[in-house]
Amino acid sequence: MRLCFTACLLLIVSAPVFAQSAAGLAAISGVVRDQSGAAAPKASVVVSNSSLGTVRTLTTNDDGLFTAPALVPASGYKVTVTVPGFGGYETKALDLPVGQNLNLNINLSLAQSATAVEVTGRVPQPWRSPRTLPLSKTPRPMSRR
After folding, report:
1. Is 87 helix (H, G, I), strand (E, B) or coil?
2. CB 51 within 8 A of CB 76
3. pLDDT at 20 over 60
4. In a domain, 20, yes or no
5. 41: domain CATH number?
6. Which domain holds residue 99?
7. Once rounded to an integer, what is the mean pLDDT over residues 107-111?
8. Residues 74/52, Cβ–Cβ less than 8 Å
9. Which of 101, 99, 103 is nearest to 23 (CA)?
10. With a threshold of 0.85, does the pTM exceed it?
11. What is the pLDDT of residues 54-68, one digit of tens each?
12. What DSSP element (H or E) covers 41?
């Protein structure tokens, strides 16, 4: 009985310590939608901070939701979203203070298609009959008759 009481007391006392460590972090979450407002499932979301060396690669769920919890509070976070067939999304220099959960609403547009045509080749030379005589390059006086 005494052991059970001690274990319960230890859990109650340690709970605020765990809460403080979680409160000392930050998070980025959000929803990814297409241009019509429908959710974009299985979108690739990369949350990174080059100064900290942090890179989190996430995938949105069926409702287009993503979350990157337990991020170190700092400035300079970047969020990049890619979905095949849609234009990409990127935001830079996000500032995450202690305890903040930054919520992003990301709307993607259709990708612009571009077609490039490159033409290579030579201009064809005019056809010359092998019986064609070359013209004289030196002028000759005309004879009178």
Report:
1. coil
2. yes
3. no
4. no
5. 2.60.40.1120
6. 26-107
7. 89
8. yes
9. 99
10. no
11. 999 999 999 999 999
12. none
Strand ranges, E, within 60-117: 65-71, 74-82, 89-96, 101-107
Residue 30 lies in a domain: yes
Q: How far is CA 31 from CA 97, 104, 121, 132, in A?
A: 21, 7, 50, 77
| 104 neighbors 91 (Cβ within 8 angstroms) | yes
pLDDT digits over 22-76, tens only?
Answer: 569 999 999 999 999 999 999 999 999 999 999 999 999 999 999 999 999 999 9
Number of domains in the chain: 1
CA distances from 127 to 12, 26, 73, 132, 137 (A): 98, 77, 76, 11, 21
Query: Is 145 inside a domain boundary?
Result: no
Q: What pLDDT does residue 14 have?
A: 43
**Tokens 């064609």 sit on residue:** 132
Neighbours of 81 (CB within 10 A): 23
Residue type, 121: G
**Token pair belonging to 53:** 């060396």
Q: Look at residue 126 and tell me if it is in a domain.
A: no
